[in-house]
Write a structure and sequence with these properties.
The chain has helices at 17-26, 30-41, 54-67, 76-86, 92-105, 109-120, 126-155, 161-164, 167-178, 183-210, 215-220. It is an all-alpha fold. The longest helix is centred in the middle third of the chain and has 30 residues, at 126-155.
Length: 221
């Protein structure tokens, strides 16, 4: 798609830069949109003609980095963590999970798990903690399902379609999965169980970050 000449930002008149970035986003040109937005954020003289704050633009850049695999050349981890440091209380959970999702999309699952853990042990509101904990629970459940599919998938080789859809056979496969001695599967199950068991402790830590002088919460911890 060609770019209308009137949308090209001019050095003498930078007021069109936001329209230009919006055009790039709507055209699916994520890479260029992210690069242009990053330049805007690094320009101390920039002011938004659309009334957007720098913080709002930070969040838009974070969305570009986490939702589109083609965006490269920018330090997404540093950018998103920068947004976290500048965020208001109701955005911490969203940004921590966005950073974890960034690593999930790139196949760096252990890094994603570390990010979620860091978020859970850092936020100081019940709402943010719930957002991250729920994301972490879904992450571990998804990992467990993947391991289950691997075990069942290996056993299905050579079977025809009708046989694979047999309720009895599926139940038998599920039973074999849960009784499996596969160390990788057992580790994944243990990680999910450990997360759920830790919830009261993690919630207590959130309350202590809200009020470090709460003696009752220290005793509960």
């Amino acid at each position: 798609m060609s770019i209308p000449q009137e949308l090209y930002p001019s050095q003498d008149d930078p007021s069109h830069i936001e329209d230009f970035i919006e055009f790039l986003v709507n055209s699916g040109r994520w890479q260029e949109a992210a690069e242009r937005l990053a330049r805007v954020l690094n320009d101390d003289t920039f002011y938004s003609t659309k009334g957007k704050t720098k913080h709002r633009l930070w969040l838009e850049l974070c969305d570009l980095l986490t939702q589109h695999d083609v965006v490269s050349g920018l330090n997404a981890d540093a950018i998103i963590r920068g947004a976290i440091r500048k965020s208001t209380d109701d955005e911490f959970g969203r940004l921590w999970t966005a950073l974890a999702y960034y690593y999930v999309r790139r196949g760096l699952l252990e890094k994603a798990r570390d990010v979620l853990e860091e978020g859970m042990t850092t936020v100081a509101t019940d709402r943010d903690f719930s957002v991250i904990f729920n994301a972490c629970s879904r992450f571990e459940e998804s990992m467990l399902l993947l391991k289950m599919e691997e075990v069942i998938g290996e056993d299905e080789q050579g079977e025809d379609e009708v046989d694979r859809l047999s309720v009895t056979k599926i139940q038998r496969k599920l039973k074999r999965f849960w009784l499996s001695d596969d160390k990788d599967v057992e580790l994944t199950k243990a990680q999910l169980e450990h997360l759920l068991d830790r919830r009261p402790e993690l919630v207590n830590s959130v309350l202590l970050r809200q009020d470090p002088h709460n003696v009752e919460q220290w005793h509960r911890g």
